[in-house]
Design goal:
Length: about 60
């Protein structure tokens, strides 16, 4: 049982590390979806990302 808990903890941290490597989003990125216009807009800086998929890159200059 302790081995299972250890494996689960390591697995969670490995997933979080992997997910962070594939994204440049920071705490300052607050994307809001505008479904009527089929785009995403950043509430912090006003950047616009077209499409239905959520952005994975910070467009802050």
């Amino acid at each position: 049982m302790p081995l299972l808990v250890l494996v689960l903890i390591v697995g969670v941290f490995a997933y979080l590390w992997w997910d962070r490597r594939h994204s440049s989003l920071t705490r300052m990125c607050m994307w809001r979806q505008e479904k009527s216009e089929n785009q995403w807009r950043c509430a912090a800086c006003g950047a616009v990302h077209p499409g239905a998929a959520s952005p994975r890159v910070c467009l802050r200059s």
